């Protein structure tokens, strides 16, 4: 049995892709598991963004499996050393990985946008986020349909054929450009949504960095398009397509990892307090946090009695809102041990 070093020396670069794919996939699964566990433990509920992120993770795992199948069939080896059956196996695995690539990117974007809807504190902001969500869904649907039928039936998977399939470079260039534009929008939208967050500058900047870190996947998307262009004219496609597979697997795994960063506990805590400080109907006056993590924040509500002296559990992304962004009720079910004591500034009026 040959070792990976011997395979590389013989012109087989597949083991490098497999190693990179499994490593980045493991990091992605760890990040996704941490994100979902942190949020579910705080809110005691599995929300829609958790569903999107889980689907993105499963699609990325499927992509890594497809990449493994590609290399097992012969990706990374010179085509002259492969049988036609092996080349067909590479094509079939690439065909599956292309669809899983789009699905994973789509649901990672939707997970972030779903969270944006929860702190879009006005009708206009909420509407803009939802429009972007619908656009991402439309983009992925438009991308998946040509991928599914990119070659003449019944062999729609013969991706190396230049006479039976659509032009790969123009198609992926269009998909890639739209992908980049949506990433730019998703990365920069929090600057608009959270610019008036009432927090110290350092904490506000840290939250912005957490959300805008997604822009780091754009160079990987561009590099993938470059490799697709280079391999499109190759006379040795099974060898030269390896770079595309390598960058693709890094791209989708890091896309999900970066989407999980804003859900780390320090960012959630800062965002929670900043959102209530920024709401015109509430004012965080002071707080207390014990060594064991228990405690409360005291919030005053302007314009009415709101249960003076009562305590409510509170956390981010769980307060129901009217269309104008006003809070319907402070009685939100969120994680212990954070408790909210609500007092009233003006007890003469009712809410």
- Uncertain runs are 4-10, 273-351
Average pLDDT level = 75
Biggest sheet strand line-up: 1-2-4-3
Number of strands: 4
Describe the sheet with the most strands: 4 strands, mixed
Give the % helix.
55-70%
Q: Which structural class do you get from the secondary structure elements?
A: alpha+beta
* Rg measurement, Å: 24 Å
Distance from N terminus to C terminus (CA atoms, Å) equals 76 Å
Helix tally equals 11
Shape: elongated
Strand content: 5-15%
N-to-C SSE string, H for helix and E for strand: HHHHHHHHHHHEEEE
Counting copies of identical and different chains, the oligomeric state is single chain
Explain the layout of strands and helices.
Elements lengths: L3 H6 L4 H30 L4 H26 L10 H35 L4 H26 L19 H26 L7 H12 L5 H15 L4 H4 L1 H19 L4 H14 L3 E8 L5 E7 L8 E4 L24 E7 L7
Parallel strand pairs: 2-4
Antiparallel strand pairs: 1-2, 3-4
Helix pairs in contact: 2-3, 2-10, 3-4, 3-10, 4-5, 4-6, 4-10, 5-6, 6-8, 7-11, 8-10
How would you sum up this structure, described in words?
- The protein is α+β, with helices and mostly antiparallel strands and 351 residues long.
- It has eleven helices and four strands; from the N terminus they run αααααααααααββββ.
- A four-stranded mixed sheet has the order 1-2-4-3, with helices on one face.
- The radius of gyration is 24 Å and the shape is elongated.
- Mean pLDDT is 75; it is low at 4-10 and 273-351.
Task: List descriptors.
61% helix, alpha+beta, 11 helices, single chain, 351 residues
């Amino acid at each position: 049995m040959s070792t990976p070093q011997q395979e590389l020396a013989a012109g087989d670069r597949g083991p490098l892709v497999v190693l990179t794919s499994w490593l980045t996939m493991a990091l992605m699964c760890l990040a996704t598991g941490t994100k979902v566990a942190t949020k579910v433990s705080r809110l005691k509920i599995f929300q829609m963004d958790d569903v999107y992120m889980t689907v993105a993770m499963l699609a990325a795992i499927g992509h890594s499996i497809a990449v493994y199948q590609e290399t097992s069939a012969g990706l990374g080896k010179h085509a002259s050393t492969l049988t036609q059956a092996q080349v067909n196996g590479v094509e079939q695995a690439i065909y599956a990985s292309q669809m899983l690539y789009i699905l994973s990117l789509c649901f990672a974007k939707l997970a972030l946008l779903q969270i944006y809807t929860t702190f879009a504190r006005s009708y206009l902001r909420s509407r803009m986020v939802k429009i972007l969500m619908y656009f991402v869904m439309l983009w992925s649907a438009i991308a998946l349909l040509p991928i599914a039928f990119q070659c003449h039936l019944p062999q729609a998977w013969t991706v190396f054929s230049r006479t039976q399939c659509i032009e790969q470079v123009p198609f992926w260039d269009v998909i890639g450009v739209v992908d980049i534009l949506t990433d730019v929008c998703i990365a920069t939208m929090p600057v608009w949504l959270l610019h008036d967050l009432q927090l110290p500058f350092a904490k506000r900047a840290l939250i912005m960095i957490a959300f805008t870190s997604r822009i780091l996947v754009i160079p990987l998307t561009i590099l993938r398009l470059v490799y697709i262009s280079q391999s499109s004219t190759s006379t040795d496609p099974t060898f030269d397509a390896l770079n595309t597979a390598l960058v693709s697997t890094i791209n989708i795994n890091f896309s999900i990892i970066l989407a999980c960063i804003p859900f780390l506990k320090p960012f959630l805590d800062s965002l929670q307090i900043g959102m209530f400080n920024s709401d015109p109907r509430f004012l965080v006056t002071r707080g207390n946090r014990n060594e064991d993590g228990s405690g409360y924040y005291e919030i005053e509500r302007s314009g009415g009695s709101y249960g003076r002296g009562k305590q409510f559990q509170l956390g981010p992304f769980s307060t129901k809102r009217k269309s104008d962004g006003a809070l319907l009720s402070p009685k939100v079910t969120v994680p212990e041990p954070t408790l909210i004591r609500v007092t009233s500034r003006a007890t003469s009026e009712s809410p």
